[in-house]
Amino acid sequence: MLLQRTIVTPVNAIGIGVHTGKRARVSLRPAAANFGIQFVRDDFPNTFIRASGWHVSDTTLSTSIAYNDVEISTIEHLMSALWGMDIDNVIVHVGGEEVPILDGSAGQFVDLIETVGTRYCSAPRRYLKLEREVTVTQGDAVASLRPFDGFKVCYSYVYNHPVFNRCPKYVEIDFSKTSYVDEVSRARSFGLVRELEMAQSVNRCLGSSLDNAVGIDDAKILNPEGLRYPDEFVKHKILDAIGDLYLLGMPVLGEFEGYKSGHALNNRLVRAVLRTPEAWSVVDSEGAVVDDFDSASRPVRLM
Question: Fewer CB under 10 Å: which end of the chain, C or N?
Answer without folding.
Answer: C
